[in-house]
Amino acid sequence: TWWNTQLTALTAASSSKLKLLRLPGESQAAAPGAYYKPSMYWSISSRSEHPAEAALFVDFLANSQEAADILLTDRGVPANTRIRAAITPKLGETDKAAAEFLDAVKVGTAPRVTPNGASNLEAIIKRHTEEVLFDRQTPEQAAAGFIKELQAEIDGA
Question: Residue 110: inside a domain, yes or no?
Answer without folding.
Answer: no
